[in-house]
Task: inverse folding
């Protein structure tokens, strides 16, 4: 027969297990938060994988209170402009890179992201699914550089159909009229992001408001990332700070091209007045 003392202990154990199960259920990671993090955060942050452009988010809730974190996630620039000391410290550590303010990010979603980070932080270090993109540490070869330049220029198409980098960006080794100017000059991108790990993570999921929707379903493959990194590393080591501004050359080429086109048209239709002028001259009886 079970004693009352034993029954009491069983009841306590049962209540404890129920509480733990309930707490575990409440801490279930939201699929929505996972998708949001992958689309907007993974290119600049890891959870237990070290710093990239931004800090490692492992145990971030132990560094600042939840309310502060939610405010910062929703509008980091506002807190930096307001002179918040910790926000300014983060800005300094990221070498002046201001975290992108994502339109429409609600406090509820920011809270779900923090819940997810807390759950991932409880895993052994390096075991989180967000520990960072694994890029091979093998030496970069001349073949990688050539392949990366071809991808950058669009000579070789990205496997998943993403647009060529040169459509929006330029680099110092490009000839002719250079590259695009919609995005920043990438000559110093490798140095600015301090190596292949951070640059590779950025290329894996570009967080900018312009690039994110473009590459959402057309991300780069791992080997393509490594090749573009190799090319940008080679450009950064060339010693040039940035690409030459080709705006004036572009305008002059446009004006010169238009002038040549008009001259060609004038020559092609040089007899265009004769069909009108000759009948008029003949009718008047005047001979030229």
Result:
């Amino acid at each position: 027969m079970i004693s009352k003392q034993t029954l009491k202990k069983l009841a306590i154990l049962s209540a404890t297990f129920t509480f733990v199960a309930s707490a575990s259920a409440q801490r279930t990671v939201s699929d929505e938060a996972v998708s949001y993090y992958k689309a907007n955060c993974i290119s600049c942050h890891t959870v237990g994988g070290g710093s990239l452009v931004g800090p490692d988010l492992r145990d971030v809730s132990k560094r600042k209170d939840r309310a502060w974190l939610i405010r910062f996630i929703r509008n980091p620039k506002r807190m930096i402009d307001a002179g918040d000391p910790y926000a300014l410290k983060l800005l300094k550590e990221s070498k002046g890179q201001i975290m992108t303010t994502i339109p429409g990010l609600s406090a509820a979603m920011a809270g779900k992201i923090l819940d997810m980070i807390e759950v991932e932080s409880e895993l052994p270090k390096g075991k989180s699914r967000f520990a960072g993109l694994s890029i091979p540490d093998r030496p970069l070869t001349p073949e990688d550089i050539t392949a990366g330049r071809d991808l950058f220029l669009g000579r070789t198409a990205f496997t998943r159909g993403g647009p060529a980098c040169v459509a929006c960006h330029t680099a110092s080794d490009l000839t002719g009229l250079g590259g695009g100017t919609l995005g920043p000059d990438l000559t110093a991108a490798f140095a600015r992001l301090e190596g292949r790990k951070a640059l590779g993570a950025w290329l894996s999921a570009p967080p900018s408001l312009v690039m994110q929707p473009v590459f959402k379903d057309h991300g780069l493959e791992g080997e393509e990332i490594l090749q573009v990194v190799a090319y940008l590393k080679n450009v950064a080591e060339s010693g040039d700070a940035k690409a030459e501004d080709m705006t004036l050359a572009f305008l002059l080429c446009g004006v010169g091209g238009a002038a040549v086109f008009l001259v060609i048209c004038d020559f092609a239709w040089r007899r265009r007045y004769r069909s009108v002028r000759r009948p008029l001259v003949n009718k008047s009886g005047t001979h030229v």
